[in-house]
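Progress note, project year one: complex with glutamine.
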Amino acid sequence: MDSQIHKIHQQLVNKEISCTALVQEKLDLLKQNTNHTVNSLLDSLALDLAAKVDTKIAKGETIGLLEGIPFGIKDVYMVQGTYTTASSNLLKNYKSAYTATAIQKLLDAGAIPIVKENCDSFGHGSSSENTIFGAVKNAIDPNLVGGGSSGGSAVNVAKDYTVFSIGGDTGGSVRQPAGYNKVYGLKPTYGRISRYGLMAYASSTDCVGPIAKSLEDIRIVLNVMSGKDIKDQTTYVSEPISEASLSSSQDIKTVGYFKNFIESEAIDAQVKADFLASIDKIKAKGIEVKALDFFESETLVSTYYTLAMAETASNLSRLDGTNYGNRIEAENLKETYAVTRSENFSEETKRRIVGGNQVLSQGFADEIYLKALAIRDQISGNFETDFNEVDVIISPVTPSTPPKIGNSLKDPLAMYLSDAYTVGFSLGQLPTLTVPQGTTTGLQITAAKDKDELVLKFANFLKDTI
Ligand code: GLN
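Model obtained:
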C-alpha cells in the first residue's frame, strides 16, 4: 500500500476533495462501526479544524503534508478538553487538562484528531477486551479479538476509519494489534518520542507508537512526533529519517532470529512454517541469516510482568478519587479510597495492582522485583552482544493467531504468555516494527537503540522480498 498521507494531501491541494467532506466521511464510518473501536468522537473539534484547512486551500495558501489528515488517538493520551478514560470506569468522566507532547506536535503540523480509541483499560491486556466500551472486534474476522492493548487504533487503521492512529506500546500493544489486523505498527526506541501526556502504565517501557497502512506514513508520523522534550527527561534528540534513505538496504548484511522462539512447542505450526519460509526468501537475496540464543519465553514474560505490574501499581496509586477518578464516598477516607478503587478498576487492573504491590513489598522485593531488574540487565546485555553480530533481528509477532473473543478473559496466564515475542524488545527499549507480512500475524523487525531508520529500511526491503 502506498502512502495515504501523500495521496490525500494531493487530493486536498488539487481540490478533488474538501477536508470537511473527508473528515465527515471518516466520522460517519466511525459512528456506524460495529467493531467497538470508538470511546468518544471528537466531531466538533475535527470539523472546526477541517473548515480552517478548507479556508486556507480556498485562499490559495500552501498546506503542510499532514494538514487536514484525520487520525485516531488511543484513549490514554491527554488532549485538552476531551475525555481521556483509559477505557476505565474510574476515569469515565475525566477530561484532559492539557495535551500530550506527541499529539500536540501532530496538531501543530495540522493533522486532525477525530476519535479517542478503545483499548485495554490502562493498557492492561493483549486483546482489548478489558474495557468498559465493549470488546474490540478484529478488522478481518469480527469473531476474533482486535488485539491489544491498542486494539481500537489498529482496527480503525485497518478499516480505513482513520488514516493513521497513535497507539501506545509498553509490552507489545502497538505491534501485536498491528499484526492481528495486518497493518504496520512501530514501537520506536524508548525516549525517541516524549511520553508527556501519555497515561503512565510501565514508565520504563512505555512508548508512543504510530499505526498505519504504509511504511511511508509510519515514517512521516514518526518524524513529526520525535524529539527532545523538557517535560520527559528520558527523551533524546534524533535525526529525522528521510524518504530516500529507506530505499537502500545495503547496510543490512546479517539478520538474526531467536532459535528458541521458533523451536518452542507453543508456536503455531503455520506461524512457524511461514516464518521459516520468510527466512529462506531473505537468504535467497544473499543476506546472511544467523540463529541466535535468547532467554526462554517464560523468563521474558515473568520478568516483563513483574516490572510492569510493579510500575503500574505505583503509577495508578494516584487514582484514588481525590484528584482523579469517580469518587465513591464511604464511612471514612481510607474506606473511600478502598471502595473507589475496588468498584472502579477492572478485574485485570486489580490483579496487576495487587501483583505489583506484592513484588514491591518488604520481604519480596529482593527476591522478585530486584531479581527482575537484574534479569532485565542481562537481557539488554544479550541484545548488545547480538547487535555486534547481526544488523537486525526478526521474529514472529506472536506465537499464535488471534484468539476468539471471550477466551483471553478466561485464562489471564495464557494471555500473558501470548506476549512472549514482544516483551523482550520492550525490556531492551529497542525500536521494533510490525510488518503485515511473513506470518498470519506479521513479522517484527528490531535493531539496536536509535536505529529506527535501519528497521524501516529492512521493512522496505521485505516488501519485495517476502
Ligand atoms: N499485553 C501487554 C500487557 O498487558 C502489553 C500491553 C501494552 O503494551 N500496553 O502488559
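The mean pLDDT is 97.
The longest strand covers residues 112-117.
No further modelling is planned for this target in the current period.
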